[in-house]
Write a structure and sequence with these properties.
4-stranded antiparallel sheet, 249 residues, alpha+beta
Length: 249
Amino acid sequence: MRTRTRAFSLVEMLVVVAVVATMTAVLTPSLNRARRQGRGVVCRGNLRQLALAAQVYVEDNGGSYPKAYDYVFGEQQVIFRAWDFTTIKDHSTGEVRITPGTLWQGETIAQVQQCPSFHGQANWLADPYTGYNYNTSYIGHGSGEATTEPACVWQVLQPAGCALFGDGGYAGGANKLMRAPWPSDGDQFVGRSAGTQAYRHLQRTNVAYCDGHVGAVQDRYTETDPVEQANITDDTGFLSPDNRAYDLR
């Protein structure tokens, strides 16, 4: 004797579809938030590695931090040397080579320099990875700065409150040179809005400090020169309304 199998009615199928759609609508925001939180954890891990590399550099170089950037113009090539990557361009062939930057002393796992929540271009277009910036106003300085040589570790009097690396971002994408909101004796750069932080992790920005710890900062400030203030986007800003989050003291 055959047993007749009861099929689902149209109404029952519609109910199931509605339930699945409702559950998807409820769960999707939670899953998206969990993914974003996971990327934030990876980002903070990357920043810890940058801070550790800076500690190794300081120990190997008499207490000096790496210079943020430097230019060398030669007859055969031009070298753009930055803390993260060095770009070497041959004059005759136009060939561009990318090597580890000053921070890495010749060896690096380059992928740690990519923030997992950033997908866009760097302001140094040849860089293979991007998303982080380095305190140029008070720590790294560079060839085009009012102070050209980097700070030394003993000059940092408040290491737990002095930003070293962070999520770099401005209106044009990522940036690698972190700027304080106001000029200082060592930093007279005028385009301060190009050195802001990106609040890309659930409205927070990750920061590695000179003592090695990493934190997620929610407070976002836009106080700076009025001309520069107009260039700051809704998801970028400074870590403090004055220079205290960047200053050595």
